[in-house]
Amino acid sequence: MISQNLKSLLENPMAGVIRKMFEEGALLKEKYGADKVYDFSIGNPDLDPPNQVIDAIKEVAQDTSHMCHGYMPNAGYIECRKAMAEKTSLEQGMDVPYENIVMSVGAAGALNSILKSLIDTDDEVIVLCPYFTEYDHYIHNHGGKVVRVKTNKDFSIDVEAVKSSLGTKTAAIIINSPNNPTGRIYSDNEIERLTEVLYEHGKNTGRLPYIICDEPYRAITYNNAKVAAVFPKYENAVIVTSFAKNLSVPGERLGYIAVNPACKEAKLVVNAAIFSTRILGFVNAPGFFQKVIAKSWNSKCDYSLYEKRCKEIMEIMDYAGLEYAKPEGAFYLFVKVPQGWNDDDMAFTTHLKKYNILCAPGSGFGGKGWFRISYCVSEQSILNSRQAFYDAVHSR
To answer: Which end of the chain is more exposed for a tag (fewer CB within 10 A), N or C?
Structure first.
């Protein structure tokens, strides 16, 4: 028999709903033709990696030196950690030493490593709804409890709601900016107000929660929007991120953890993250791509195509008569289920399939009554979906 806990997760209709739709989309394309299926289910970046990344891949692939594919320190190659320290220092506006960097197997590996490092059984981790659905599993992996806190109507941080959710077991809060699924970027003011509440809580309880900044979409912003730097505002801050989205290499599974040097237990947290990387079975981040990223992390990228697609899909939503949250970054549109469906996003996304449209139900993100469109798909697919969306909304 398999684990009963895992069995219950597998039998949950929301378990892996996005991946299931992705697989269903492949079957529909085979049946009806790719041009007649509108698959907006998964955030699979479709821009080609920048030329600098391709050139670095070719260069690293030519290396046949002795032990070039051997083990390395669990935290990663020093040259790669130094490059990530430079990147993080530029983003945070303060010096971050390479010793505070731990390379990881994507942002997912980074999150699992840092959660294992920070939480004990029954410790609580706050997530801001709506949120990336896998957070639940990552937190439960290490015996933690998920505390879901609703955001404001515009999906900004409801600081008072966070304050009310804090307790003696609160170990961390995860913030994802730009947010998946809403595209919301949390402002400097929101972060400052959040840190004030957390510092007050830490003073009153003796336990200062960590802010875990999940930032794989940090570079993909619109209208020159900037993602707030958290390190200068809060000592117990950790960044987890990857190159899956910004450099379009999700399959290479490379990310990293950066620990704020102002953190009083920074060295202990780094060592715990290194140890967790090892005992979770990752051992180390992919060596080949560490060498690639060390040479190409600062590649110039053009995200204007995402912005163009965003405008096109919003125009289609307007035509279909659907409400949505205008994104400030990432490549998702969070759309309100139309009136008459009683906020049943599962039923509505099932209805959309009749028109060969695949979208992720908002309930899977803690956003009941909404659904997510991932517009990192071909422009033609977006444009071709116009009438299908209209027909789906105006018929039952």
So the answer is: N
